[in-house]
Amino acid sequence: MEDYGKFDAFVLRLVEESTPERTMWNLEKLREGKKGTWNYIDGCMLTALMEMTRITGDPRYADFAETVADYYVQEDGTILTLEPDKANLDDINEGRVLFELHRKTGKEKYRLAADLLHRMLEAQPRTYEGNFWHKAIYPNQVWLDGIYMAQPFYAMYEKYFGTGDYSDIVNQIKNVHKRMYSEDKGLYFHGYDASKKAFWADPETGCSKNFWLRSLGWFMVALADLAEILPDGEQKDQLIPIFKELMGNMRRYADEETGMYWQVPDQPGREGNYLETSGSAMAAYAMLKGARLGILTEDYAEAGEKTFNGIVDKYLTFTDTGIDLGGICLVAGLGPENNRRRDGSYEYYISEPVVENDAKGVAPLILAYTEIKHKQTLSEKAA
């Protein structure tokens, strides 16, 4: 993609046409006519918008992120639409913006809201190994998605308001590596049931049957973000090899022409499989960021940019009113018991709808774009 200016204009247009109750990137809610909520999709976008301001110096991106947070976070730190009793790790992710907003504005309500989300994590049910359950409705289950939803916030809380002890975070990541990593494929299974009782779980390992690209994507993004949040030292040193190992293995599965990745990554070209946008964007982000941080070699930045451009060339169309972004898996999950269609099989993953303009694809692509902007800025400075 040569003309990144179009993408700048697109992101700004999304911001200018959004309100806290109606964000233009959360098209799933728009289509259903629902008001906005405190949710992980907006959380991913607000993180990207804060980064856009840091890179460009244009305050409009971060100002909108602040507008959203200010709307949902009440003076006593309670959060509109949040339901703590659901013990849903997805609800933690949007809290990542609270730390910067507290520093910027001095408003105590952002500190109180961060405290509230941290108390939710303290109360979150855990597996016997010590990992957070993904949600209350998924007992004893660890999903890769949940690592992104909870652990970067948890690390930021320790950094800004806690004692700086990241050992619980590191141990949970190490448990994921121990329980969910496939030595054979070099990838991580989507889910793991510590009780081994879920209908989709292997009775010996507790893992789900297959690898799902977007869940791997969330895990990659989480590791890249944690590598930036954690200070240098022993705890960070335990995470870096896990990150480098996964990123190296992912490159084996990239489509040679586009640099993208398949919905079921280890089965390229199988009937029904397709190059998927959201997980590919997450891989691009993680590779670009890992290289920028000096953890990955520079060729990973080139690979990440190839993936980003591959998504743009294959699935992105600029229109008079915005963009159309295709190739997005609408949703995928495992269970619960009353939804046995979601069994983790290959057939299941390729059966979920492939849609355009869903926020779960748009937000990661913009997040990846922030790293493209970083790369451009560094190149300009070097010149």
Itemize the secondary structure elements and their pairings.
Blueprint: H1 5-16, H2 27-32, H3 40-56, H4 59-72, H5 98-105, H6 108-123, E1 141-143, H7 144-160, H8 167-180, E2 181-182, E3 187-188, E4 191-193, H9 213-229, H10 234-250, E5 261-262, E6 275-276, H11 277-292, H12 298-315, E7 316-319, E8 322-325, E9 328-329, H13 346-351, E10 354-355, H14 359-382
Antiparallel strand pairs: 1-4, 2-3, 5-6, 7-8, 9-10
Helix pairs in contact: 3-4, 3-14, 5-6, 7-9, 8-10, 9-10, 9-11, 11-12, 11-14
Structure description:
- The protein is mostly helical and 383 residues long.
- The chain has one domain: Glycosyltransferase (Alpha/alpha barrel).
- Helix content is 53%, strand content 7%.
- It has 14 helices and ten strands.
- It has a two-stranded antiparallel sheet. A two-stranded antiparallel ribbon has the order 2-3. Strands 5-6 form a two-stranded antiparallel ribbon.
- The chain is globular and about 55 Å long.
- The protein starts with a helix and ends with a helix.
Summarize this structure briefly.
The chain is built from 14 helices and ten strands. It has a two-stranded antiparallel ribbon with strand order 1-4.
- Order of SSEs: HHHHHHEHHEEEHHEEHHEEEHEH
Category by helix and strand content: mainly alpha
On the 0-100 scale, what is the average pLDDT? 95
- Rg value: 19 Å
Number of helices: 14
Query: How is the main sheet built?
Result: 2 strands, antiparallel
Number of domains: 1
The geometry reads as globular
Short key terms for the protein model shown above:
about 375 residues, 10 strands, two-stranded antiparallel ribbon, mainly alpha
